[in-house]
Amino acid sequence: MVFSFTSRVQVDRMGLSRGASCLLLLWLMTISHQQDVTCRFTADLVFLIDGSNSWGQRNFDRIIAGVAGAVDSLTFGPNDVRVGAVLFSSNVEDVLDLQTNATDFQQGLMSFDYPDETTYTNLAIEKGIELLFRNPRENVAKILVIVTDGASMSPEQTAYQAAVARSRGIEILGVGIGLDNTTELASLTTGGNQIIEVDILTEFAEQLRIFTNLAILSSSCVKEIVKQGMWKFEI
């Protein structure tokens, strides 16, 4: 995987600016070299994409394009990164199984139709768990990224499904777009704080790209360093 941090965007909720992100990467490379640790960037990642009526068609199209662009720098493959997606609204509207080819993922994503209904995030998390464990790989990070602009219609069920996911070792991240209140979204995530807020849609693709890269970096490389080198590092 190639990391390229080219924007001035700050990933506020993770406390990582572009410079801090680069320092984190350099730190990992240095420690990996000193400890003779090989960090292979592997993960199974599923985007849970809100298709509710608050977007409008134009903004929904921009969200889909942003998610498609966020994976450009990932190394897809059966032994590298696999990426899938769930489109949700009142129901699970569309599902893209874990893909081992970036073009296949992006083309599948672009075929999603805007459902223009409500926000049942619990159904998306449940489906995301199913995808991640359909053909699981051992010792590979499993990540759900919730992309939403509003609260779920069933908060209790959503909290329950998130707890189930976390109990099964799935890392949950949140991307809140134009949210007035991020409390619920943050509470769903690993540690209750793995969230970024995006106020301007033109910044969405770049912020999501950085966030996704860092998630895979921290889930694969840091864990390998901790396991082999007895280091403790938390983002």
Automatic annotation (TrEMBL):
SUPFAM superfamilies: vWA-like
Signal peptide bounds: 1-34
Keywords, sorted A to Z: Signal
Taxonomic superkingdom: Eukaryota
Any Pfam family hit: VWA
InterPro entries: ECM_Assembly_Org, VWF_A, vWFA_dom_sf
Domain VWFA: start-end pairs: 44-214
This protein's name: VWFA domain-containing protein
Organism: Lymnaea stagnalis
